[in-house]
Write a structure and sequence with these properties.
The complex is a heterodimer of chains A (325) and B (299). With 325 residues, chain A is mostly helical. Chain A has one domain: Orthogonal Bundle (MetI-like fold). Chain A contains twelve helices and two strands. Chain A has a two-stranded antiparallel sheet with strand order 1-2. Chain A starts with a helix and ends with a helix. Chain B has 299 residues and is mainly α. Chain B folds into two domains: 59 residues; 229 residues, MetI-like fold (Orthogonal Bundle), CATH 1.10.3720. In chain B, 79% of the residues lie in helices and 0% in strands. In chain B, helix 8 packs across helix 9. The longest helix of chain B is centred in the first third of the chain and has 45 residues. The chains are: A mainly alpha (325), B mainly alpha (299). Chains A and B meet through helix 1, helix 2, helix 4, helix 5 and helix 6 of A and helix 2, helix 4, helix 5, helix 6 and helix 7 of B. Chain A: Keywords: Cell inner membrane, Cell membrane, Membrane, Phosphate transport, Transmembrane, Transmembrane helix, Transport. Chain A: It holds the Pfam family BPD_transp_1. Chain A: It comes from Komagataeibacter swingsii. Chain A: InterPro entries: MetI-like, MetI-like_sf, Phosphate_PstC, Phosphate_Transport_Permease. Chain A: It is a multi-pass membrane protein.
Chain lengths: 325, 299
């Protein structure tokens, strides 16, 4: 730190000289920085325009019915988005149902209960889980989770919940192991670290005096969490959950391995299905350039983009508001 | 009268009710703690299950031929050499392209706030790009590069990875530059240094540890990406370092092999998965170690 100023004077020499060179340098540097910034805007605008234009053929061929149609027939050239949108939303919902409590539990434990050394170890483990490539989750899911689901979880769940009126039909069907439930579970494991690290950051950043005054009144850790920390950090926590949702919506490789890849829509969570991303990954190599099928896939991509942009924008707004308050 | 009759029962059983409530509160506290500890145990168990599976199934294929031979037909004893070199080439080039662009954009966000609204717009868009589904980036590069060129290429894969790489570097560069104390900038300006020298020689220099961490993390992230490479570099069964031709990569090879019906291909997929996970996790640990070492050195 101390040596820096002397380096600069030594290199720049006379002040007069610095001014002329400096102004030119500032001009070039400023231009480069602005170019880089604008390049990012350009990429984003490019992605939007290119995907919408690529999907236009399908949008104009099927009209608004594209979104509500469940067809996916490459032979008769009938394509619809309903099944894969349904699969995307259902798997994401399942993922959230499992990931949010899990992430909350880990974050709560890390912030309030763990010893510093143990907390550092667990935090590293959580970050490593977040870093594992999605294809690894896919392989692990396909070879470990799917057989486990098929042999142990699904038959048992069907046995106990399959005849409950109302929710029973969610848990019926052949226990293949692959399906919406398995896809959702893998997604849950993948997004838990993201939600957890946002929650940990938020819980740590709450002013100590708020927690201390609640503890001083005799509140337990859970009461402090529920009545002080959570109300205070509600928005940022929502932002973290939305961030996880965004990840789950667009996740491709892990889901492709375990979801069973079938264009079906039904009540059973055990039945194979597909998501927008898995459908694109599977069908894209089999569609020729310029075909209606390719255009339908690009239209699906555009729909996925819109869904995830809305989610991510919400997440940004929540996080900004949550951390500024 | 009303208040008296209402307070009567509480007064009568006051200590008892308090006692029951205290027991209930303690019970809730205990069970929440237990549930949280269980949640942590579950997450740890999942991580170790993944690592254990990779080591037990992948270690069997770790031999010299795996690193020396290219992928081959099932039963003929191929390796992963072309996939490893393809992954290294595409990831490395993507980092070379992405680092300067990402750093300049990060500098723009942190140092050019006089540009006003457009800076916040770029920040917002960069954050969106950070979490855009990677498969969409693959489609984008396919449409603007692969389709016009008429063939898949390593260059297209590189560019798709670069698009994923840039926003991570933007974010860390901006965050790290914001941590540079104002006094340091002012001292440099007071000595007559022009703005760009202040940023390059003072700010970037003091933030380089953090930025390096960001670059390493970005590298780890893109080296495991599969979806964007499916439509851009496609994969190649032979040894190829030509950027203008389809190029193999570890993740895509794993994807193709894992779903196959041949035992030796599945074995290769596990070995590749082990290699890539070890590389990614080691890079992550290195990056975090670097950050803590650098952070403590600054204080």
């Amino acid at each position: 730190m101390m040596e820096l100023p002397s380096t600069i004077t030594a290199r720049d020499g006379v002040a007069m000289d610095t001014n002329a060179r400096g102004r030119f340098g500032d001009l070039v540097f400023g231009m480069l920085a602005r170019l880089a910034g604008w390049f990012i805007l350009l990429v984003m605008v490019g992605i939007v325009i290119v995907l919408v234009r690529g999907g236009w053929q399908a949008f104009s061929a099927f009209g608004p019915g594209f979104i509500t149609s469940t067809a996916w027939n490459p032979i008769s050239n009938h394509f619809g988005a309903a099944t894969s949108i349904f699969g995307t939303l259902v798997t994401t919902l399942i993922a959230l149902v499992f990931a949010v409590p899990l992430a909350f539990g880990v974050a709560f434990w890390l912030v309030e209960m763990a010893s510093p050394a143990l907390a550092r170890f667990i935090e590293t483990a959580v970050q490593l889980l977040a870093a594992v490539p999605s294809i690894i989750f896919g392989m692990w899911g396909f070879f470990i989770v799917v057989p486990f689901m098929a042999h142990y979880i699904e038959p048992v769940v069907t046995h106990y919940l399959g005849h409950v009126p109302g929710i029973g039909q969610l848990f019926r069907g052949a226990p293949y192991g692959t399906g919406l439930l398995s896809g959702g579970l893998i997604l849950a494991i993948m997004i838990t670290p993201f939600i957890c690290s946002v929650m940990t950051d938020v819980f740590v950043s709450i002013p100590a005096v708020l927690k201390e005054s609640a503890f001083g009144l005799g509140a337990t850790r859970w009461e402090v969490m529920r009545q002080v920390v959570l109300p205070w950090s509600r928005q940022a926590v929502m932002g973290g959950i939305m961030l996880g949702t965004g990840r789950a919506l667009g996740e491709t490789m892990a889901v492709t391995f375990v979801i069973g890849n079938s264009n079906r829509m039904g009540w059973s969570l055990f039945a194979p299905g597909n998501t927008i991303a898995s459908l694109i990954a599977l069908e894209f190599p089999e569609s020729s350039a310029g075909s209606l099928k390719l255009s339908a896939l690009l239209a699906l991509g555009a729909i996925l983009m819109i869904i995830s942009f809305i989610t991510l924008a919400c997440s940004r707004i929540f996080l900004q508001r949550g951390t500024s308050s | 009268m009303m208040s008296a009759s209402q307070s009567q029962p509480t007064d009568a059983g006051g200590w008892q009710r308090g006692g029951a409530q205290a027991v209930r509160r303690r019970l809730v506290e205990r069970s929440v703690s237990l549930l949280c500890a269980m949640a942590t145990a579950v997450v740890l168990f999942l991580l170790f299950s993944i690592l254990w599976t990779l080591v037990t199934r992948g270690a069997g294929g770790l031999s010299l031929p795996t690193f020396l031979h290219s992928t081959a037909a099932p039963g003929t004893g191929g390796g992963l050499a072309n996939a490893i070199i393809g992954s290294c080439e595409q990831t490395g080039l993507a980092a070379l392209i992405g680092t300067p662009v990402g750093m300049m954009a990060g500098i723009y966000l942190s140092e050019f706030s006089q540009d006003g609204r457009i800076v916040s717009l770029v920040r917002f868009v960069s954050d969106m790009l950070l979490s855009v589904p990677s498969i969409l980036v693959g489609l984008f590069i396919y449409l603007i590069i692969v389709e016009p060129a008429g063939h898949f290429s390593g260059m297209a894969g590189t560019l798709a990875l670069a698009v994923l790489f840039i926003p991570i570097v933007v974010r860390t560069t901006e965050d790290m530059l914001r941590l540079v104390p104002r006094a340091m900038r002012e001292a440099a300006y007071a000595l007559g240094a022009p703005g760009w020298r202040v940023i390059l020689n003072v700010c970037l220099r003091s933030a380089r540890g953090g930025i390096m961490t960001g670059i390493l993390l970005a590298l780890a992230r893109i080296s495991g990406e599969t979806a964007p490479l499916l439509f851009t570099s496609l994969g190649n069964l032979n040894w190829s370092t030509n950027l203008n031709a389809p190029m193999a990569s570890l993740p895509v090879t794993i994807y193709q092999y894992a779903g196959s019906a041949y035992d030796d291909w599945v074995q290769m997929a596990w070995t590749g998965a082990l290699l890539i996970t070890v590389a990614v996790l080691a890079t992550n640990i290195l990056a975090r170690w670097w950050l803590t070492r650098n952070g403590s050195a600054q204080q």
